[in-house]
Amino acid sequence: MTVEGLEPCTPEPGTFAVDGRDGRVGRVMGRVGPYVQLRPPGGGAEWDCPPDAVHPASPGLVLRARVTEINREGQLPR
After folding, report:
1. Quick check: 52 and 7 in contact, CB under 8 A?
2. Burial class (CB in 10 A: 0-12, 13-18, 19+), 18
3. Could you report how far apart the first and last alpha carbons of the chain are, in Å?
4. Are the C-beta atoms of residues 29 and 38 closer than 8 Å to each other?
């Protein structure tokens, strides 16, 4: 929800957020035009999300996302 005349609150780059449209969790990479760019934990293609649909991830979702990233980093090259 936004207050009239104020821009929605965008989580800081580097933090995790949830795309409220479909529940995906991503690391906030920044803004491009009117959109917030999110990247899946562990890497992958970024996606654009309207700022009014982005909200900070809960501590449990952040923990799960960090574990995904750490596991991905620990994989040996094939």
Report:
1. no
2. buried
3. 46
4. yes
| Residues ≥6 apart with Cβ < 8 Å to 59 | none
* Tens of each residue's pLDDT in the chain, 78 residues: 444 544 556 789 999 999 999 999 999 999 999 999 999 998 999 999 999 999 999 999 999 999 999 988 887 566
Cβ proximity of 39 and 51 under 8 Å: no
Strand segments, DSSP code E, in the chain are 16-19, 25-32, 35-39, 47-49, 54-56
